[in-house]
Every structure is written in C-alpha cells, then in structure tokens.
C-alpha cells in the first residue's frame, strides 16, 4: 500500500543511485514482507495446529502495529530524520524476521506472532519515513503517476513472495495434512517440527538482505527533507476550527480507509486457504495470492493510462466499490475455480481506492493535514481486524459464507465515494 504525503520542498539532486530508485526498492521490500502473510496463514495453521480464527491472528499481529506504533514511529523520525529512520526501520524488520528462528525451532505460535508484530512495527516506521519522498522526487503534477509506479513495485514483490515462500514452506503440505490424523502423537509432533523449521533458511536470507539494505540506505545519497515548514504555509487555514474532529468527511474517510485496507488484505491473505476449502490442492492454491496482486497491478496500469485523461479518480472510486460488491457476490454464489477467481479479481477493484480516499479525506484540512494523515495511517489497522472477523466467521459458517463480510465494507466505500466525502460541518469562530 502506498501512503499519502503533503507537499514538501524539492531537494537538490545528488550524485549516486537516483533517489526514486531507492524508494522503489523500499516499496518492493514493503510488498515482499507484507504478502508473505498469505502463505504464513495456511502454513502456521498446519504447523501450529490452529483453527481459522487463530490462523488469522497472523494478519492481526502484523497490521495492528500500524495502529499501536504510529505515534512512536513519528517520535522516532523526529529524532533520527527520514533517511536514518528508513535505515532503522529495515533493522527493526530484520529483528522481527530473526524472531522466526526460535519460533520455528520451538514451534511456538506466540513467538511467530511477536515476530510479525515487530515486522509490522518496522514497516510502519519505514513507510512513514519513505512516503514523503514520492511527492517531492519530481514534478508535483506527475506525483500520482509515481505513486502508481511505487504501487507496481509493491505488488510485483507481493506476487513473488508467496510463490517463493510457498515453494519451501508448503512443499508436499497436501500429503502431510492428509496423513496427520493417521499418525501417533509422537510421530505427528516430529513431522510438524520438521514443517516448522522450513521457514528458518528463508528468514535467515531475509534478515541478511534487510541488514545489507539498511546499511546501504544509511550511507546512500538520499537527501534529507524538512517537513516542519509545511505547518507554517497552512497556518491561516481553517481559523474557525479547533479540532480535527470538526471535519466529518475526514472521520468518515478514516473508516473508509480502515474498511478498504481490511478488504484488500482479506482478498490477498485468505485466497489460498479459501482455495483449499474449495477442494483445490495447496500446491496449486499457493499461487492464488499472486493472481490477486497481478489483478491489482492491472488496476494500477489502468489508473496510469486513464486517470485523469478518461475519468477522474473520484469516479474510479465509485466504479471500484461497485465492482467490489459484484465480485464479492459472485464469489459467494459460484464455486471452485470461478469463485476463487472472483476473489482474485477483487485485487483489480481495490487497486485504485487508496489514492482516491486520501485526497477526499484530507480536502480542506489546512493546518490539520498532518493530524488527519496520522489518523488515516492508523486506519491501516483495518488489515488486522477485518481478516480476524473473517476467520471467526469461517469457524462458525464456512470459508465461502464468511465472505459476506465484504459486501457491507464495499457498500460503505461506495457511500463515501458518492456522498460521505461531501459531508462538511459549518463551523463559526
């Protein structure tokens, strides 16, 4: 996911690798680490013998860090600056990946969740630090195109990640799952311990790569930026307002972003497990998250080519919400590969929502823009809550019926796209 940033002063160019390439690499890392969760959910469900609700704590532990660590991340960046903050964020992600090693050796689900929370913390810091560069590294009129390019970097990595980890972690998982109930407790424990240790080598490689990148960023030519001046330039705006709560379109925007991130994460993280519930083998289903993310890439390309030449970003949000409802209902009322494909197509529906929600929610905030941005970043916690509710519904009903949760989410996004963002409250001084 790409973050919004406010206008900043254009830095002077420096020698070395172009800063935009460095940010592109960072967005690749965001995507790779984030979408490993789609494999970890079914993998840890087997290895740690979990029910569906417990398995979706993977997404909860990861995304709740955006809510819990948003304010601490801002404090860290104020102390370190943006470039050092990005380097530190990579180190924190590496620490979270390192925790996977004792978690795998002991097959302790709580340690896996701790590792995921630490990784989410590092990503919250890294994204908060890196996103302002997207706007300033080039002309403002082409900022939307750069955001879309960053999104493609993110989702290409997300498409690669589940295939790479799935090839190792889920190898022969179908056969193992089939024979588990026939094994004695001692033999079953031995088999599951072997399964758990499969992630050790991939995560050692991840740790090494992250530490190399952290060192590279620290010594890179990436320019430092100053965001403090932004408040002065908008200090006279909204003089009659005293609180960010006096902007109902922002509050509704936070809810909309919360639900959007929830459905985006759900579409990517649940599709492998859903494929299995539709009697598709894990060896095939492990590719489904990649299909979802490639559908998102197709949406980004449509956005780059068509907005604003053929239609506005606002209209794109309306159409995206309607498509979300259509694909969700189609997934519920069809079966097998067709139903799974409808969940993958949600990636296309979701792709254009993020860049549309941000400007609608922040419109007219003036000096409250930074606070509004912080609230929207906290809305990323929707990726923690919505999949967890889905997992609970799967245990009570079925993986397919649980997708009914998507319909009211997309309906609220449609409401915001058509009516909600226009709601303003007149405040007199």
UniProtKB/TrEMBL annotation:
Spans through the membrane: 20-44, 56-77, 86-103, 109-126, 200-219, 250-267, 287-307, 316-337, 343-364, 371-390, 402-419
Bilayer topology term: Multi-pass membrane protein
Cell compartment(s), UniProt: Cell inner membrane
Domain of life, source organism: Bacteria
MF term (GO), any: D-glucose transmembrane transporter activity
Record's GO cellular component terms: plasma membrane
Keywords: Cell membrane, Membrane, Transmembrane, Transmembrane helix
Family, as annotated: Belongs to the major facilitator superfamily. FHS transporter (TC 2.A.1.7) family.
Protein task: Intake of glucose and galactose.
Name this protein carries in UniProt: Major facilitator transporter
Species in which this protein is naturally found: Pedobacter antarcticus 4BY
